[in-house]
Amino acid sequence: MVSEFYAFIDPVLIAAFRLPGNEYLGLALGLVWVSLLATVLGELCMAGVYFFNRRHFAEMRQEMVRHNNLSIRALGFKDKASYKACNSIANEEFGRNFFSGIALFASSVWPAFFGMGWLDYRFHGVGFDLPLMGMVGTGFLFVPTYIVTRIAFHKAKPWLPLFSAIKRKIAENEGDEEMITYMDIVKKEEEPVDTGTTEECADARSSRGASSRA
Predict the structure, then answer these.
(1) Most exposed of 6, 32, 106, 205 (fewest Cβ within 10 Å)?
(2) pTM (predicted TM-score)
(3) Which residue ranges make up each domain of the chain?
(4) DSSP 150-194
(5) Mean pLDDT across the stretch 119-136?
(6) Are the C-beta atoms of 167 and 43 separated by less than 8 Å?
């Protein structure tokens, strides 16, 4: 089944290897082509996963930013109780956002494994003798090519209409509030923290504790 899939996509992937007419240039161009396809497909899949769960991701981001900002403002006004309550929730939300980011990234790399699988299917037994490393296959050369291609693509995304639109939609989904740091409130005068800040954060922590015990 997998071999049939590789045979199906073979004409699209092998074309770039044959374009230059030189085997070394063809190999370089082909690896970049496979890496680019894997990167684009992965980025689209990551965007699809995000928008499918957009409410969940927006809620996590907004809660993280909100409680971080409340804790920073409380710190600026030396409101220790508010700071501890809000900072504790902000740390939990940082953790949730971090692991959600890892899951999102994982959804974008699976095409690279199919790319490596196709390279093994197409160039099985073909090796390259590299200094200090001996014989290596196309999969070994694909990994650094994919990494470099992905970094370059990330830098080019703001100038690509589709991906700049995706970034704009994500920003709209997550709200306008920006995360602040302690230096932000040192540089400018802030209004006092709302009197309900401590109670709000404490109530949030109590409700989370109750739900976790349930």
Answers:
(1) 106
(2) 0.78
(3) 2-204
(4) HHHHHHHGGGSHHHHHHHHHHHHHH-SPPP--HHHHHHS--PPPP
(5) 74
(6) no
Element containing residue 80 per DSSP (H, E): helix 80-123
CB 112 within 8 A of CB 146: yes
- Contact in structure between 60 and 100 (CB atoms under 8 Å): yes
Name the more confident of 81 and 147. Answer: 147
Nearest in space to 43 (alpha carbons), one of 157, 119, 143:
157
**H or E element, residue 97:** helix 80-123
Q: What is the pLDDT of residue 67?
A: 84
Residue whose C-alpha is closest to residue 17's, from 110, 173, 129, 126: 126
Long-range Cβ contact pairs of 4-13 (< 8 A, separation 24 or more): 6/117, 6/118, 6/121, 6/122, 9/118, 10/118, 10/121, 10/122, 12/37, 13/37, 13/115, 13/118, 13/122
The residue whose two tokens read 């409380």 is 74
